[in-house]
Amino acid sequence: MAVASVPGKTLAELFLSPPRQAEPCVVRGWVRTRRTTRTVSFVELQDGSTLRALQVVFAHDRVPRERIEAELHTGAAVEIAGLLVPTPDRPQPLELQAERYHLYGPADPTTYPLQKKAHSLEFLREIAHLRARTRTFQAVFRLRSGISFAIHEYFQTRGFVYVHTPILTPSDCEGAGQLFCVTTLPLAQVPKRPDGQVAYERDFFGRPAYLTVSGQLEAELLAMGLGKVYTFGPTFRAEPSHTPRHLAEFWMIEPEMAFYDLAATMDLAEDFLKFLARYALTHYTEELAFLAERYEPNLLPEIEAVVQAPFLRLSYTEVIEILQKSGKNFTFPVSWGSDLQAEHERYLVEEYARKPVMVYNYPRAIKAFYMRQNEDGATVASFDVLFPRIGEIIGGSQREERYDVLVRRMQELGMDLFPYKGYLDIRRYGSVPHSGFGLGLERLLLFLTGLTNVRDVIPFFRAAGQMA
Ligand code: 4AD
Ligand code: MG
After folding, report:
1. Minimum CA distance residue for ligand 1 atom 24
2. Contact at 8 Å (CB) between 384 and 363?
3. Ligand 1 atom nearest 394 alpha carbon
4. The dihedral sign for the CA sequence 456, 269, 371, 401
5. What is the distance in A from the centroid of ligand 2 to the CA of 117?
6. pTM
7. Cα(2) to centroid of ligand 1, in Å?
8. What CATH number labels 131-178+213-467?
9. Which of 208, 233, 273, 356 is packed most tightly, with the most Cβ within 10 A?
């Protein structure tokens, strides 16, 4: 059979508007399963456009049984022409009565790793190149696509400008030192200066360069001209921990707004997350129902709760008191000044508040240099959003817009001011209060999918010691 020259319809389109009466049809996709009886074979065909499969019936007097048994194995790619018949009295509303088919690519059943049964997520992580053929990953990746679109919709309809910030950068935004260095210097024989330091002046940019950990610093510069901006791009952290919540390459959404203080920014973050949760519920019903059934029975009520309930807002100091009075025996001790650990965050969200919590005004010593110093001299105008099952999903702050205060803080931290010349300059000319936050896309997707490992919500994961 010649390959049809028309694009044909996707299964999603066929299920959305099924024909009233039998009509000729061409479909393309991959065999999910096959069952053969004496007179007919049944093939379930999937094409990635919907989680549903189309039942295709091959009568052996029309298509020889031997050919079907030799070729139509799980994973084989085919084009099938036949008669599409409505079957309203059966569980599936449609069936294709095949007349002929073309085999694009066979899949040898003795070596093809995917079977009809559901595989463990751990197993699928080892064959990430084939994961998109499973319903789980089709649901996850379609949701990831839709949420990305919704993120743009949210900001674009609210007057934000989408800005592309660089991936190669001279500075460490978060000051946490988790940088991947980018160099063209020969690693086997790195040129050195007389004092033993690396001769970066002979490197590609003539100075050290890294993969960015955040687009925030450049977003701030752009917000000082454009007002409200957002970035949405990949960020990189040489994060050595092997947790299910950390990737070395992840996607972050970072809005940055001139004239916003901390409270206005927390309002924006809450509204944004509610919008995305509602978007998933209304546009991805099929995917969420599948994921809830397979992975997280409480998924829909939890997403619904994010939409409905106002987030609880607590200062860091209040949180420390709550944790100390909780009567819990935490592994990490709780005292004013120490950072909140995952166990503390989960207690707060899952036992104390039973809904998302926003913690604000953290101690200055545990937060990044750019956060605005509060009047108390001890805290900064920062906030984190904590979600059930996930912990921190957003980190943000009001930025230090006072030139002198910022320079003093950077000097106090022993930072080299040279890479931050432009960042400091915007504090010298027309500086205004401004704020922003970063949402980790994969953390949000963990929440929306009910999955528990960030490696399962990005198509090809990069984490310490692992490249899918
Ligand atoms: O709290 P973080 O480090 O904040 C920033 O990078 C700020 N510059 C954001 C801003 O104010 N514009 O990271 C923000 C979010 C975290 O809350 C988390 O959701 C996610 O990014 N994140 C990670 N996700 C996956 N893997 C990692 N290694 C992550 N590190 C942070
Ligand atoms: Mg953070």
Report:
1. 440
2. no
3. 17
4. positive
5. 39
6. 0.96
7. 51
8. 3.30.930.10
9. 356
